[in-house]
Amino acid sequence: MESMANAITMVIAPLGAPPLNSSVRFRSKSRRIWCSRLESNDKDKFEGASSPSETSVQISNDNIWKLFNDAQQNIMHLNKQRLVALEELKKVQHEKQLLLERLEQLEARNQAGTTTKSVESWSISELLLRIDSMVLSDMIGTGEAADLRKSIVENRFAVDNLFFGIQEKNDLELLSELRHFSETIMRKPLHVVHICSEMEPIASSSPLASYVTGVSSALQRKGNMVEVILPKYASINLAPIKALRKIEGEVDSYFGGRWHRNRIWTGIINNIGVALIEPLHHQEFFNRDLICGYSDDFKRFAYFSRASLDYLVKSGKQPDILHIHNWETAIIGPLFWDIFVHQGLSGTRLVFTCHDLNSQCLEQPDKLETCGLDSHRLHRADRLQDNINKNLINILKGGIVYSNKVVFVSSSHSIDKIIQCSGHELEPTLAVHRDKLLITPYGFDGTNFDPSKDKFLPAKYSANNIEGKALCKVALRHHLGFSKHSFAIVGCIFSEVSDGDVDNLRLAIMYAMEKGAQFVLMGGTVMTPTLQLLQEELKDANVRFVDKNEEFLLHLILAGSDIMLCSSFHDPLLQVPLKAIKYGSAPILLNSRQERFRYTEQQDFGSTVMSQYILSTFANMSLSQALDEIKNQPAQWALKIKDGMSKDFSWDAECCDVHLAAYESVKNF
């Protein structure tokens, strides 16, 4: 018995139990523990004990063996847990060692100067290494790190565009962007349908075309579903449309008191679904040379607007957002809320984009009845009645009144400035609906206009590796036949050149030549008589006029120029100022030749990040100041140029964020 008790002592001792002898004394705490293990008849022996501390119990052999077996089971369980813990510890230590080795390898590559190529294109591997670094420095926990890694790996298609050019950012800045990225991709995708009159590259006559394509592509790249509905113009360019097909089922649309048939064509542009509406009974509406500019424009686009909504209902589409544009599709506002919201579109909300407040479309009220609207109900001051011509309706005003959000597109103005310059006395309407007004900057195609990826350039470069720009400058000089003895090249790219621009150009070119710079002007495909005269007047070895609309030369001029003269910072058609900044060419206003020049609207610095940056950096810089800084303070100039190149002003950046915020804010109205 004594040997058995000693054996139990050896087994149970590691568990913290008191030593056992042939007779066992129980403390009050031990009594509760051990008595639970005894048989019921043994428990009775303790009931009459005068004091637990003085009670001795002779444990039977059976109970000792039972206790012994229980202790063994406890020990085996604890050992198993200890082994699992050791394995986990080894795994963590191994992973930590791997992380340290990977960081050391990256540091070694940096010190050896072998990361030049990777700096040009921020790779997923390097991004993951930065997350590893954040874990090791206790900035984030392993759980959040795992979520961030998963977001990156599962959305690697978006990483290059979203995280390009962040190598110089510290971990705190990068972590903020990573968290924003993770939150964005976890957001429920939106279904957005644009109904508009233009879209690049199939139908384009105004900035609306590039805007629709740019914003739609950016939204699509961020995981949303975007579709566009357009008229099928006779002059439409069908070549860029993939998978173009005619839908056999035709759509009826109410117009002029009866129902009319439409044929629907579908296809894909830039991965965006496109539907083209072709009227079968009113083919003359869109079989014309121009998109608009005719006396029956309201009738044409009112028909298209009604047909687009009928198509949505018949096809069963229920988009989150219906995005309409300018006066051409503004009539969709009252059509939607008065008729179509009750036809399966109760969960859809309206966003209206306005590019030009001066084009408003004033019409007789009875014209509304052609598309099924009640003119008496809508011809009111708080609805469509024009603020000045009380006997007319204002179609643009209807878009503002009947939309949940109104987006103005401007690269240089604030909401206040836009309201003040609205024209046609829309100020009272805009003031009433001010809470739903937003402003967004224009963007540009960051996939085709990026010097780090540009296929047209002889050498690629970026803000962090700008050496390639010097090679592009050499290539531009060679192509234009310039000499090598000039410290700067001044570029100028126009879609159209007005007579006023020509007068300013003459002064700017002469000044640039006087300072020893070279000058290249790229105009439209046809030289105007005034521009031809200027070309004859300023024949010089350091001046070139280019009338060829060649894409490679456009990219080369952007890359090879030090300064880009612009008639305005607000360039919705070509977005030259934004592209110039990305290519390391400073945008300077054309009429800013003299030191005394000051930007006439310097007090209106806009309400977008892009407008604030451009106006604060370049608005008060004259051509002479820019040339002097290039020549006399090259280091300071280089810092300014690199700072601009590091910013993202493409459609994917601020412009897309404004639209997403607008969509999310109205989705639950």
From TrEMBL:
Pathway: Glycan biosynthesis; starch biosynthesis. Pfam families: Glyco_transf_5. The keyword Transferase applies. InterPro entries: Starch_synth_cat_dom. The keyword Plastid does not apply. It comes from the Eukaryota. Its EC number is 2.4.1.21. One of its GO terms (biological process) is starch granule initiation. It catalyses: [(1->4)-alpha-D-glucosyl](n) + ADP-alpha-D-glucose = [(1->4)-alpha-D-glucosyl](n+1) + ADP + H(+). Keywords: Glycosyltransferase, Starch biosynthesis, Transferase. Residues 191-430 form the Starch synthase catalytic domain. One of its GO terms (molecular function) is alpha-1,4-glucan glucosyltransferase (ADP-glucose donor) activity. GO terms for cellular component: chloroplast. This is starch synthase.
